[in-house]
Amino acid sequence: MESSIPSQYLLVLVALAVERGCAPAELFHDTGLSLDTLSSPGSRIDEAQADKIIANALAATGDPSLGLTVGQQLNLGAHAVIGQTFLACANLMEVLETLVCYGPLLTGRQARIDHYKDLDAGRIGLMLSLTSPSPSIRYSHESIFSAAQKTLSDLLQTPAVDLEVALPYDSPRDATAFKEIFGNNVRFNAEKATLSIPEALTYQPLPTSNPTLRALYDAECARLLADLADNASCAERTLAALDKLEGQYPGLDQMSSMLNMSTRTYRRRLQDESTSFQTLLDSARCRHATQLLRHPELSVDRVAERLGFSDVSNFRRAFIQWTGESPSQWRKNQRAASGPRAY
Question: How much is the mean pLDDT over the chain?
């Protein structure tokens, strides 16, 4: 998938930095970009260039929490067609599903947004995984979650939303800004970055719901995502397909057919990318397995069944090969590392 983000997000960042006295030349240093480049309607910026602008802005402003402020400036209009899709959704559950499905249009490929559920606590939300380089990794967490809070607040037409937020880095010396945006339930040094709301809230009807418009906007989002996917590597397209086929994984011949290639061409392209179908399949199955094992109500046998294993012993052997631990030991270690709270 194309490694890029909407230029609108960087325009907001640049505008905030300029308001604080930073010179545009300082912000665009060593990026090959300019204000005119960002201002082009519908343009997308390579993530490496975006990271450089973010690093320049953080250095120029001296504000490590700049991402929180940027996120609060991103109203629904800033998200273009996806923002319009959010407005047309029937409820927040549809909003979350839209964000997970079309998140790459907003975040590029350095950020991955997945569903998050804490069934014991009755909370549903988002889990964010980042591969952004330092120092933009903290900025990315905070801008994405701050923008999510702003979106939920705007959709519900209320400034206060019952949020719980977990961030995978040390608490800042002053967490006031976090509490002002997210409320008091903000936790640092977490294993995963998550943002959640009460499950009951996800089914509350939205006042701007419009099924007809949602269908139109959804189709446009799908078209835009397909356009980006045309630029994806063979491995990325394979992983994207496998991620949607949990427990119903295709074989190599089936996958090559799904991607409109001969088996020979498909195998050669993966080899050129220094990987193989089996490696990608193992990666997808391991990822799905660890996601399922985080839910204590699912037994290891049930997880094995969900992943398409007919014999739980085969699942255990495969999981040990993937992680070096048995499923039960992995689950035990994860619980110990996260403390008494349930996943």
Answer: 88
User: pLDDT grade, residue 136 (50/70/90)?
Assistant: confident
H-only helix segments in 20-79? 24-27, 35-39, 47-61, 66-73
* pTM for this prediction: 0.69
Phi, psi of 218 (to 5 degrees): -60, -40
CB neighbours (10 Å) of residue 300?
Answer: 19
Radius of gyration of the chain (CA): 21
Residue among 82, 110, 79 at smallest CA distance from 1:
110
Q: By the 8 A CB rule, do 154 and 146 touch?
A: no
Q: How many residues does the chain have?
A: 343
Give backbone dihedrals phi and psi of 173, rounded to 5 degrees, phi first: -60, -35
At residue 208, what is the residue type? Answer: T
Residue 115 parent element (H or E):
strand 111-118
Peptide bond between residue 207 and the one before it cis (omega within 30 degrees of 0) = no
pLDDT digits (tens, 9 = 90+) for 62-87: 998 999 999 999 999 899 999 999 99
Place of tokens 């949602």: 214
CB 249 within 8 A of CB 242: yes
Phi first, then psi, for residue 205 (nearest 5°) are: -60, 140
Mention every residue, 6+ apart, whose C-beta is less than 8 A from residue 19. Answer: none
Residue 340 has pLDDT above 50, yes or no: no
As a whole number, mean pLDDT of residues 295-299 equals 86
In the block, residue with structure tokens 């990822």 = 287
**Residues 289, 95, 99: CA angle, nearest 5 degrees:** 55
**pLDDT at position 342 over 50:** no
